[in-house]
């Protein structure tokens, strides 16, 4: 029995959607790092009144090997998980955990405060906190007659 790597059938549609709705960033997908990414960590994204929170599952990755950058409203997370020794038996070989380079990009809304982004890694979960900018309170202006 051979193991077959699962390829997400939605990747092509997601790429097309990014190019249609955000053409200024479509060139970013041609980056060599993206082309060589072996896997992509699962990410949960939540929002509250004060911030956006990204939680990425990256067990086995040293926090020093994770690179987080922000450019032109796009948050990039990349790094690498090295392979470990694989046990081989008489007629089997089984490796389920993915290894190699990973790469994820997220387009942030204008309300994100790029200067105050913080990241913390704990128990294999990378937590990125992106505060929202303070917005002036809108008020109604009375028209005098």
Topology:
Layout: H1 11-21, H2 32-35, E1 43-47, E2 51-57, E3 67-71, E4 74-81, E5 100-107, E6 118-122, E7 125-131
Antiparallel strand pairs: 1-2, 2-7, 3-4, 4-5, 6-7
CATH topology of the domain at 37-84 and 97-131: Immunoglobulin-like
CATH hierarchy, class of the domain at 37-84 and 97-131 = Mainly Beta
* Strand neighbour order, sheet with most strands: 1-2-7-6
Strand content: 25-35%
Q: Alpha-carbon distance between the termini?
A: 84 Å
Count of strand segments: 7
Structure description:
The chain has 145 residues and is mainly beta. It has a domain at 37-84 and 97-131: Immunoglobulin-like, CATH 2.60.40.790. The protein contains two helices and seven strands; from the N terminus they run ααβββββββ. The strands form two sheets. Strands 1-2-7-6 form a four-stranded antiparallel beta sheet, with no helix packed on it. A hairpin with a 3-residue loop joins strand 1 (43-47) and strand 2. The chain is elongated, with a radius of gyration of 20 Å.
């Amino acid at each position: 029995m051979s193991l077959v790597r699962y390829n997400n059938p939605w990747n092509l549609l997601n790429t097309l959607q990014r190019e249609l709705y955000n053409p200024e960033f479509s060139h970013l997908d041609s980056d060599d790092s993206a082309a060589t990414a072996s896997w992509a960590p699962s990410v949960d994204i939540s929002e509250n009144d004060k911030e956006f929170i990204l939680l990425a599952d990256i067990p086995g990755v040293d926090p020093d090997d994770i690179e987080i950058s922000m450019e032109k409203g796009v948050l990039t997370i990349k790094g690498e998980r090295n392979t470990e020794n694989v046990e081989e038996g008489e007629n089997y070989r089984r490796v389920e955990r993915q290894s190699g380079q990973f790469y994820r990009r997220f387009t942030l809304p204008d309300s994100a405060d790029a200067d105050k982004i913080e990241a913390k890694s704990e128990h294999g979960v990378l937590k990125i906190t992106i505060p929202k900018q303070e917005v002036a309170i809108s008020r109604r202006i009375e028209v005098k007659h």
